[in-house]
Structure formats: C-alpha cells, structure tokens
Amino acid sequence: MVGRMLDFFLRNLQPGGGALLLRQLLERAAQGGQPLRVLAPGGHLRRPLRAAGCQVHERVDHEPLDAVCATAWRSDLTQQLAGWARLVRPGGVVVLVTPRGRPLRQVVCAAFLHAGLADPVQHTAGVAVLTSGRVPPPAEIPR
Asked: What CATH number has the domain bearing residue 40?
C-alpha cells in the first residue's frame, strides 16, 4: 500500500507542491543557467524532472551528471548511494524519494553520510520523504 501511495504522489507532482520541493533540492546543483543533467533510475521522476527543465537521462554516458534523482534502492542503501554519487560531478546532488517511515528517516540520513554525501537535507511532501545530499569535492571526501 505504501508503494502505491508513493507512486500516486510521484505521478501527481504538481508545480507548487512536491515538484517545487524537488526543484529547490536540485537548485543546489545548478551551474550557470544550463539545464541540469539528471539521471532518473526507476523512471518515476522523469515527468516532474522534465517539467522542472532538466535534461533527463535514462542511462549513464561519459559526462558526469549534475544530479541523480531516484525512488528505487537496493537493500544496501549506502552502496547504492555511493554508486550514484560516483556518477555525479563535485557540487552536484543525489536525491532519494522514499515512502514516509520506510526506511526510517534517520537510516536514510545515515546512509547518505556513510556514502560520502555532504549536507544531507530531508523534507516531507505528502506520503514521501525527499532526502538530498551534495557530492563534495575530492579533497572533502573522507578516506
């Protein structure tokens, strides 16, 4: 049921609601007015990302991305986030949309930190939680 509620939320993101929040999170990655290059694994966020003016990619090419925005994750969330972070240029962001309470917000935030993402931010929007983290410059990545 939670999965269906999250799908409903994502299909119906409207400007001024969750789409505005998503756009604000992506502004952290903005560079000089160019459209953001965003990977959207899982496909649920393609429509709202395109509506926000992003170039949405379904596959990774040779150029670093500005952001990864996803709704799906594997059982090892930290490894998944670290993998996505490697695809994003320094200063870009990783955004994960999860159902409220699954996994717990603290677990998601800890996974962002353990994956090497900086400045995690969480916002609730309806039945979903949007968590974003910034990809730090190589000098800031803990070894």
From this structure: 3.40.50.150
pLDDT digit string (tens) for 45-91? 788 788 777 888 877 877 888 888 888 676 788 999 999 999 999 98
Query: Is residue 59 one of the residues assigned to a domain?
Result: yes
**Residue 87: its pLDDT value, please?**
92
- CA separation for the pair 139, 97 (Å, rounded): 28
Give the separation between CA 31 and CA 34, rounded to whole angstroms: 6
CA distance 15 to 8: 15
| Residue 61 domain flag | yes
Domain of 99 in residue numbering reads as: 2-138
pTM, to two decimals: 0.77
> 60: Cβ–Cβ under 8 A, 6 or more apart, which residues?
39, 87
